[in-house]
Amino acid sequence: EDQVTQSPEALRLQEGESSSLNCSYTVSGLRGLFWYRQDPGKGPEFLFTLYSAGEEKEKERLKATLTKKESFLHITAPKPEDSATYLCAARTEPELTFGGGTRLMVKP
Amino acid sequence: DSGVTQTPKHLITATGQRVTLRCSPRSGDLSVYWYQQSLDQGLQFLIHYYNGEERAKGNILERFSAQQFPDLHSELNLSSLELGDSALYFCASNREGLDEQFFGPGTRLTVL
Known about the structure:
The complex is a heterodimer.
Chain A: E1 3-7, E2 10-14, E3 19-26, E4 33-38, E5 45-50, E6 56-59, E7 62-66, E8 70-75, E9 84-91, E10 96-98, E11 102-107
Parallel strand pairs in A: 2-11
Antiparallel strand pairs in A: 1-3, 3-8, 4-5, 4-9, 6-7, 7-8, 9-10, 9-11
Chain B: E1 5-7, E2 10-13, E3 19-24, E4 31-38, E5 42-50, E6 53-57, E7 64-68, E8 74-78, E9 87-94, E10 102-103, E11 107-111
Parallel strand pairs in B: 2-11
Antiparallel strand pairs in B: 1-3, 3-8, 4-5, 4-9, 5-6, 7-8, 9-10, 9-11
């Protein structure tokens, strides 16, 4: 059975304090690893797609990386507006299998 | 704004009732996916439609059904509602040949 696990469940950072979120996956035939941002009560917002080990993608203060078993979302010098839940998802078939998310809180 | 629209935004109903949730995909997208997000289960895939045809089913209860119409909008029908069906229901769409799914704002269903 395909499984996606995210850690930590919650993370509190001070503004400017860099950190990383982890997504580990056990799937057969990975066809893409996705990162989304979700604000409370809203739909997930697409951030990145990664396809192969060693691949990296960046957007503003966020950088996503992929290995054969894990993906990391690195947040550099976060700001309060980066507070949200970050979801990763693995695609084996067209649908996505999501992890439980990491709730990030950045304090000013 | 992802371009995916969902109505209604909120729905409050009673146990045993039936409701219909509606989704319009982004212009040009042929696929529609439905997901359920509850506090204890996270985001779970329910069903996938492509150009009017059902393509895959996930953890969808027999009390739930969906369809996609010729204009590509989709409806998710939930019947014999139970308290445990209270959740956020999202639809997503993507373009043929591209993997990224774009999510709508969701419908919050509360069953009392």
